[in-house]
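Protein of interest.
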Amino acid sequence: MKNFADNTVSTKYWHGLDDGRVQCDLCPRFCKLKEGQRGLCFVRANQQNQIVLTSYGLSSGFCIDPVEKKPLNHFLPGTPVLSFGTAGCNLNCKFCQNWDISKSREMVKLASKASPATIAKQAKRNNCRSVAFTYNDPVIFHEYAIDAAEACNDSGLKSIAVSAGYINEEPRFEFFDAMDAANIDLKAFTDKFYYRLTGAHLQPVLETLCYLRHETNVWFEITTLLIPGENDSDTELHQMCEWLMDNLGADIPLHFSAFHPDWKMRDVLQTPVATLIRAREIAMKTGLHYVYTGNAHDVIGGSTRCYYCSHLLIERDWYELGKWGVGAGGCCESCGATLPGVFEASPGDWGARRLAIFVSDKLA
């Protein structure tokens, strides 16, 4: 079933239950829905005894961002990325930093109507090197994201998924097969945190990380939002970093990002910069090679140095790039060691700009 007039398309990850309900099998929530009901994500619903996506082709808006804002520090540095999201989310994070979009239950939030081909065309027209599915989790608009990624690929553009990685095995394969890069939110390293503050579980996210590392060529980086008193203890940080070392290796970039009071956690103080610096030090002592701080002014924590000779490779002041020491083939210009990631001969010059644009089939 495809009805682009009301932005509804059929999906394939579901099955019927003996009691007449239909179970969505896209993510580990396994929402069981009666006719007319929507899943927790809001955009997937039971219509005519099947699960459909009700937001295909709709977006909450488009912006051109620096790719470092995703955040991706080792993927086409300095280049512009066309970013967009939809409404809803399959996690229920009490600390959501984009709650006005991800917690929306109003289709009116989806102001722009753009086909995958139009998205690719507008990205090329605006000299973007990639398109990012972000602001809310693209897992929930699985079909739209994949079609958009394929259209981008046909146009010579890269596709980026910014996701919490909460997805089941079969749809995970199809989803990331269409992506070139990803940033995965590893929100904490205890199931207690996940269950209490996101309504989800840790293990499926760890499985996604292992899948990306060992079974795909997707370049990915990891972000952990540090919330004071919730997931920032030395013990938890040590455990998390040791797991990353053992299961993903030393070269996966890790970003520690500062929390600011929002959504249902406005009574928690903003993360001190000292906490980010401490977390970075713990991660690097554990053996991780590339660890960054984010959402805070920290040039040292935001810049990339060669792990082998400490040469400054990419200087970053917020999202502005400074000194550039990456040579041909993504190697350190000082010692020749390879810097893991996806690099071009020279950095982009987009800078820290954030430019809202209107993308619509009517303007294609």
User: Anything to note?
Assistant: The longest helix spans residues 234-248.
